[in-house]
């Protein structure tokens, strides 16, 4: 949206005005979105020209439109990033279906990115008339293909056709004289040069992404007969009621963070971990669509539970959805969108080894204890103090026993591992990251944006 506007208009504080508008736009807040492995990342070869290689996928789960359409067949050119959105029905006529490999986004990652953009566009264009979303499909395709791509710094239209396509925002009057095209040979030469530039840019982008991805990977290989321990974990994502610190009329977890609801950041992280088999989202039913729209893109089961009055009530509600086969329960506050996959894997491992573990960071500030009159009683030794974060990981049986105790004794706790602490069970602290902040105020939201932007650059 910003690139589209700045290419055609200018006014003072233009960027700030557009960002401010998107922040308070109800449609944008509700619908718009921005997603330890073994082996190193393996990128696909870069194509030489447009439409040499394509990726394809189906997006389903849309409301059935008047014409009986309920799905979209998405075809993406891997070179130009141009996409075609073809309306279709979910019923398959094929005798055999071939699927891409699980947890290998390099096999179809380009289409996954486009799918998310398509969902955002259709929800915005057809938000008031959801059963007429198919009528907005052509407009969504035009909007996507006319948007500048981050990898190429050009729109798909410009890469394929050699020049920017006139947009509906362009209101120039037609010239009175007859316009002739420039020499065809020159046009073809310019197009070849453009394709060579795009190929080189894609090559550089792919190498940068591989280097970044491999920073957090180990080149492990397994042989036949090797024993591998698989931790089957269930994640409870907690969503609490409206936060007074944000001064808004909606739960803070659904406020946009760089265009994506805060809650979806951690949801995507857990969805992509092979250690996680199921996510239980504790939320108001009104916000279920935020997660259901993305469920089909991951190989993780998603359940929903109703929130309670207090934090421990919400966790207890989510625990009721955890079956007996689960080996670990991982509880995470969705107001912490910046937890890293590496920290999640560490605390899962420590929880498995110790029965209970929690992410935390050493306290940096000086902490003083005060009396009721706000006079200092003593200065605490910060060498032994830790700021506790989430996720917090426990064995399910241990957590159930802890809930039996605190419910029987009518004990109120402020975090999840406190429940098992009442059983005198030791809780291991896994050192996390200071960037795993909890977003509770507008200042926290700005800080989270800065952290994300710094990571991307």
Could you walk me through the main structural features you see in this protein, from its secondary elements to its overall organization?
- This protein is elongated.
- The model is unreliable at 101-105 (pLDDT under 50).
- The strands form 4 sheets. The chain has a 7-stranded mixed sheet, sandwiched between helices.
- It is an alpha/beta fold and 457 residues long.
- It starts with a helix and ends with a helix.
- It has 14 helices and 14 strands.
- Helix 4 (109-125) crosses helix 5.
- It folds into 3 domains: 1-31, no CATH class; 37-94 and 106-168 and 185-214, Nucleotidyltransferase, domain 5, CATH 3.30.420; 233-456, Alpha-Beta Complex (Spore Coat Polysaccharide Biosynthesis Protein SpsA, Chain A), CATH 3.90.550.10.
- It has helices at residues 2-6, 14-24, 26-31, 109-125, 137-145, 156-161, 184-214, 262-271, 288-295, 311-319, 341-354, 396-409, 417-421, 442-456, and strands at 54-59, 71-77, 83-88, 233-238, 256-257, 260-261, 276-282, 301-305, 328-333, 356-362, 368-370, 376-379, 386-394, 428-431.
- Pathway: Isoprenoid biosynthesis; isopentenyl diphosphate biosynthesis via DXP pathway; isopentenyl diphosphate from 1-deoxy-D-xylulose 5-phosphate: step 2/6.
- This is 2-C-methyl-D-erythritol 4-phosphate cytidylyltransferase, chloroplastic.
- Residues 1-32 form the Integrase zinc-binding domain.
- It is an enzyme of class 2 (transferase).
- Keywords: Isoprene biosynthesis, Nucleotidyltransferase, Transferase.
N/C terminus separation: 21 Å
CATH architecture of the largest domain: Alpha-Beta Complex
Please provide the ordered H/E string of secondary-structure elements.
HHHEEEHHHHEEEHEHEHEHEEEEHHEH
Q: Tell me how many strands there are.
A: 14
Spatial order of the strands in the main sheet?
8-7-4-9-13-10-14
Shape summary: elongated
Could you describe the largest sheet, including whether it forms a barrel? 7 strands, mixed
Name of the CATH first level of the largest domain? Alpha Beta
Specify the helix fraction band. 25-40%
Proportion of strand residues = 15-25%
Enzyme class: transferase
Domain Integrase zinc-binding: 1-32
Protein name: 2-C-methyl-D-erythritol 4-phosphate cytidylyltransferase, chloroplastic
GO molecular function, one term: 2-C-methyl-D-erythritol 4-phosphate cytidylyltransferase activity
